[in-house]
Amino acid sequence: MTQRTVGIPKGLLYHYYHTLWTTFFLELGFDIKVSPDTNKKIMQMGITSAVDEACLPVKVFYGHVLELADQVDYLFLPRMVSVARKEYMCPKLLGLPDMLRAYCVNPPPFIDVTVNLRNKDGHIDQVIKDICTIIQVPVPQGKRAWEKAEAAQKRYEEYLHAGHLPSGFCCLVGGYPIAVLGHGYNVYDSYINLGLIQKLRDLGADVHTKEMVAPEIVDRFAQKLPKKMFWTFGKQLVGSGLYYLSAPEIKGIIFLASFGCGPDSMVGELLERWATRAKKKPFMFLTIDEHSGEAGMVTRLEAFMDMIKRRVS
Ligand code: SF4
């Protein structure tokens, strides 16, 4: 039997869980095909296919799916409802498999299992069973592969908490330490964010991100909110943002938001208010969409870094 290929779109939650997902399917003996880094063609395909109201990373995700659709035996498109107890993912992620199924012509089978860990500790066993049913693999084999994949994901997250950025971005490089807060799929996709991290480094910044803050610190700082934030990524942004606001070594904060993202507008606004009240460090709100221009962004980044350099010297 020829080896079957699972396609994994390099967008949205890939930027968080690629180690888990790829290790799992590789352990099961599948070939993996990951779509290329976001490029002009992928972005254009996404923009013309997704609904206008979608945020940029969702549009780009459509492009990644279309890029892979006719090259693979399965498309891995889990329906991510919740990845932590009493928390939820963004509603725009929940309907993605349905919207893509409705849009794609003759797509390969979707591995569109529902991941909902909000209430049930044992639910991940059901997720593994559901995947095994779709790809026709014995469940015990799936469980063994999952254990290895979880261990690899844990090691990867520890590597990030130790101060590294995901591969392709190198680690901390020295310079003026600033925090760039935003969703991994915006911060680590250089095409979506117009090369933000490299531009900041060229201006003398050392970029820290929310993935470098350990979960227990995120949780501790997120508890400063009067009410629990039930969006997982919103909680991570608030917790890491409040931590960076209080960390003396961090000289400024950039909040990177997607145009049309409800959670980003709310969380960014909250952090901006805390930063203004604390009067301790510069805070810049940067919104990106498919019309964002490089020249305008560079001007704002230069002004931001000039301000930081003046304050530090
Ligand atoms: S959280 Fe915001 S950026 Fe992310 S998928 Fe939802 S709407 Fe889009």
Automatic annotation (TrEMBL):
<dbReference type="InterPro" id="IPR051805">
    <property type="entry name" value="Dehydratase_Activator_Redct"/>
</dbReference>
<dbReference type="InterPro" id="IPR018709">
    <property type="entry name" value="CoA_activase_DUF2229"/>
</dbReference>
<protein>
    <recommendedName>
        <fullName>DUF2229 domain-containing protein</fullName>
    </recommendedName>
</protein>
<dbReference type="Pfam" id="PF09989">
    <property type="entry name" value="DUF2229"/>
</dbReference>
<feature type="domain" description="DUF2229">
    <location>
        <begin position="5"/>
        <end position="213"/>
    </location>
</feature>
